[in-house]
Design brief:
heterodimer, A: 438 residues, Coagulation Factor XIII, Chain A, domain 1, 23% helix, 34% strand, B: 276 residues, mainly alpha, 12 helices, 69% helix
């Protein structure tokens, strides 16, 4: 029997993208412009419908290759991570592999029964009880009624929802809902399992349980394809990885190397930009200056433990200010503030100008996990009192990945230890050991 | 050696094992149908009684409107309410089933974009709910027959055949519109309109024998004419005259739409997930 579980050969998938033509829009448009635009759109859509094509919004249509000429092989029992930025083609690849959509060209050979998990709780019906939803969801994922019956107790146990089995799931807390949904998925027994970003749900305790379950699935010789943005999860679960970029495969090899490549590719286009010029603000500042853009100069906002935490801030100032500073508060993924720091008042801003400031936190001391930080530009600090020109919260999400041991094992930092890795303790022996009388 | 579960995915390849796959996914069909039935009357006060109340109200209105005000002739000695109800039942089955099928794909968009299964299962299971509502109204028909002390003849044994005919009549246009609905949501707005028009051009509130003889064949181009006539004949027995050429023509129209609907559905099926 061949030991290749999945073979992908020059796979491509094309979508159509709509564009708005360069005519006046919104306030500048006259009634005539709008009518002409609408008529043109209607004409195009009618033509399209007559030919049997798809309706695409916009005035003109362009081809878009979500995947272009992707080839790779996965051996039986191998657990492979698929990484790449948003829009790199990961989801398209999974959709083709799970037969939801057809490739435009190329071919895939799958040796074994396939189950795919693109979402937990697909098809859950809010009006149905937990018990009913287990059967519904199971059937949708391809389990037979008998199979579900034999695993029913196990599923209920795993989800910890015994008491609410006959309650409609619309009355469930979101945690219960997700646990039940994942429990059904976790009891699938295919030979090839295709998983999308489904571990990003549930509380930390449950996530760990799911990771454990997935690892045991992999341990039983099953082939798993695992897509995630969570580098820590990819590194923990997979031995090898595929990296996609703009629809093409750019890297294939051991996970550590691929993840390293993913995080270090530099150059144009490898930055993560957040445009915050017009996003709503939770705390209004005095508008002397405004933060217009935040940017990580790397392909993904993922940092190693020892690495400085670094990003760029673009500030547009409306008045002359000297002695401005930037301050930052880091929050855990659940919103708990972890700590704050102030930069010295060293920036001079000139009226009606835009400045780029590189912000560096030399030692972030954060434990592996997901975080985000809030930023403010202003004057003063916690000692002298604070005046904020502008405050941006909730935007700058980033991740700290686990440290690699020498044998490339992943270090374990338990959540119960907190979110800060303080500098190593200093130990000094003050006294020579006393002899204890026997 | 080739693995027993080897699957090859290529452009245009999904067609091959289609009908086999459909059989393999029969359990999913049962589960989806069961879901729709269970959910249908959840959190309502009178529950399944709605399935009786709706046709009953229509029956009263039509009897008054066509029987007493417009004074349409009945068939032989049949009481007018029976005539109306024997037409209303297959019509309601057709109308609800065509509507449910047309909206089934869009209504299950989250399933279609996340899991693979032969898509034909979705409209098929949507139809089951309508059949169950129909079965409930059949009980009401029996009540009416007893009330009017009307004993149907041997023809009633052929009733299942006419039920199947109504279902097939809804399946063709339903599938056709369901597939187009995925791409062009215009059809979602058009369906209720068409169905409402259909109610008045089909012989629901009146007997099709009021249509002048020379127009009857043309009138039978509406497939529901054949279905309703047949249904009445089966329930009301010999009292109804049965127009064979029109009935055959209705079958031809049904077969044509069925072919068209399935063809369109199969042709568009592979792109549902991209378009929905």
């Amino acid at each position: 029997m061949s030991d290749i579980a999945i073979r992908v050969e020059s796979l491509s998938k094309r979508y159509l993208l709509g564009h708005q033509a360069n005519t006046p829009k919104g306030e500048d448009a006259t009634l005539r412009d709008n009518l002409v635009g609408a008529a043109r759109g209607l004409l195009r859509r009618t033509k399209e419908m007559a030919r049997g094509g798809a309706l695409v919004a916009g005035d003109s249509v362009e081809d878009f290759w979500a995947l272009k000429d992707v080839s790779f092989e996965v051996k039986r029992g191998e657990v492979v991570g698929i990484i790449g930025r948003n829009g790199a083609g990961k989801s398209t690849l999974l959709k083709i592999l799970s037969r939801i959509t057809e490739p435009t060209s190329g071919r895939i050979t799958l040796n074994g029964r396939v189950s795919s998990l693109l979402e937990v709780g697909t098809g859950f019906h809010p009006e149905l009880s937990g018990r009913e939803n287990i059967f519904l969801n199971g059937a949708i994922l391809g389990m037979s009624r008998k199979e579900i019956q034999t695993k029913f107790d196990e599923i209920v146990d795993f989800a910890e929802v015994e008491k609410f089995l006959d309650t409609p799931v619309k009355r469930y807390s979101s945690g219960m809902y997700v646990r039940l949904a994942f429990a059904v998925s976790a009891h699938l027994e295919p030979e090839i399992l295709i998983v999308d970003e489904v571990l990003a749900v549930g509380d930390v305790q449950f996530q760990k349980k799911c990771l454990g379950k997935m690892q045991s699935v992999a341990g039983e010789g099953r082939t798993v394809l695992f897509v995630s943005h969570n580098m820590a999860a990819v590194e923990q679960l997979t031995q090898s990885a595929v990296m996609l970029r703009a629809g093409r495969m750019v890297e294939r090899g051991p996970t550590t190397e691929v993840v390293h490549a993913y995080m270090t590719i530099a150059g144009a286009g490898n930055e993560v930009v957040f445009d915050v010029a017009n996003t709503p603000r939770k705390y209004p500042g005095n508008d002397k200056a405004r933060i217009v853009q935040l940017r990580f100069d790397r392909i993904a906002p993922v940092f190693s433990p020892g690495e400085p935490f670094e990003f760029m801030v673009r500030i547009q100032s409306n008045s002359d200010t000297s002695g401005a500073r930037i301050s930052m508060t880091i929050f855990g993924a659940d919103g708990t503030p972890i700590g704050s720091c102030f930069a010295p008042p060293a920036i001079s801003l000139r009226a009606r100008s835009i400045s780029d400031v590189r912000v560096t936190l030399p030692e972030h001391m954060l434990a592996p996990g997901s975080y985000y930080c809030g930023l403010s530009v202003g004057t003063g600090d916690h000692i002298t009192g604070v005046v904020d020109f502008d405050v941006v919260l909730d935007t700058l999400h980033f991740e700290v990945r686990p440290e690699k041991g020498e044998d490339s094992t992943v270090s374990a930092w338990t959540r119960a230890w907190g979110t800060i890795v303080f500098n190593p303790l200093k130990l000094e022996l003050e006294q020579s050991p006393l002899q204890v009388a026997a | 050696m080739i693995h027993p579960h080897t699957l090859i995915l290529e452009a245009g390849r999904a067609d091959r094992q289609y009908w086999q796959d459909l059989w393999r996914y029969r359990e999913l069909f049962a589960v989806l149908a069961w879901r729709d039935v269970t959910v249908r009357y959840k959190q309502t006060i009178i529950g399944a009684a709605w399935a009786v109340l709706q046709p009953f109200a229509t029956l009263v209105v039509f009897t008054v409107l066509f029987g007493y005000i417009a004074k349409m002739p009945t068939e032989g000695s049949t009481p007018y309410p029976l005539l109306v109800f024997a037409g209303l039942l297959p019509w309601q089955l057709f109308a609800s089933s065509a509507g449910a099928i047309s909206n089934s794909l869009v209504g299950n968009a989250s399933l279609i974009s996340k899991v693979y299964f032969p898509r034909l299962i979705v409209p098929a299971s949507a139809m089951v709910v309508c059949l169950i509502d129909f079965a409930i109204s059949l009980v009401l028909l029996m009540g009416l027959l007893i009330w009017f002390a009307y004993w149907p003849g041997w023809q009633v044994l052929l009733l299942p055949g006419f039920v199947a005919m109504a279902v097939l009549a809804s399946l063709g246009p339903g599938l056709f519109i369901a597939s187009l609905n995925v791409k062009y949501r215009d059809f979602r707005i058009v369906i209720p309109f068409i169905i409402q028009m259909g109610l008045y051009v089909s012989p629901v509130g009146f007997s099709s024998s009021v249509v002048p003889e020379q127009w009857r064949l043309l009138y039978s181009l509406n497939p529901m004419v054949g279905v309703i006539d047949g249904f009445r004949w089966a329930v009301l027995g010999g009292n109804v005259n049965f127009y064979m050429p029109g009935f055959m023509l209705s079958w031809c129209v049904i077969a044509f739409f069925l072919w068209l609907g399935i063809r369109k559905f199969r042709q568009m099926e592979r792109s549902f997930a991209d378009l929905i």
